[in-house]
Amino acid sequence: MRRWSTLFVAVISLLVGFILLFIPGPGIPFLILGASLLAEQFRPMASALDWLEVQLRKMMWGGKAWWRQASIPDRGAAALVVAIPLAGVGYGVFQAVFGG
Questions:
Q1: Is 25 left (phi over 0), alpha (psi -120 to 50) or beta?
Q2: Which of 13, 68, 70, 90 is least surrounded by CB atoms within 10 angstroms?
């Protein structure tokens, strides 16, 4: 019974997380919860999450190394590259919720 209830909660969490990615809400935490619950039950999912963690850590270390050696104008450009799309997404969400 515990296994089936865990699978049910995992699938529901993944569905809720996927839906919340497109509307305002905490979609990513729900996706992480659902994936971790599935990893508890299935070895391939656990292996995939382990691989993903290693890849994300490598990317993080590379980004930290680049940030330390980057000049101030390079840091400002990188911040703009991240901030402009985020502002666009925020504006789109605002228009979807409050606009017409």
A1: left
A2: 68
Of 6, 16, 15, which is closest to residue 39 (Cα–Cα)?
6
Closest CA to 27 of 36, 18, 35, 38: 18
On average, the pLDDT of the chain sits at: 90
Helix or strand run (H / E) with residue 47: helix 43-69
Domain ranges of the chain: 1-69, 70-100
Structure-block tokens of residue 19: 């839906």
74 vs 70: CA distance, rounded Å: 6
Give residues with Cβ within 8 angstroms of 95, minimum separation 6.
Answer: none
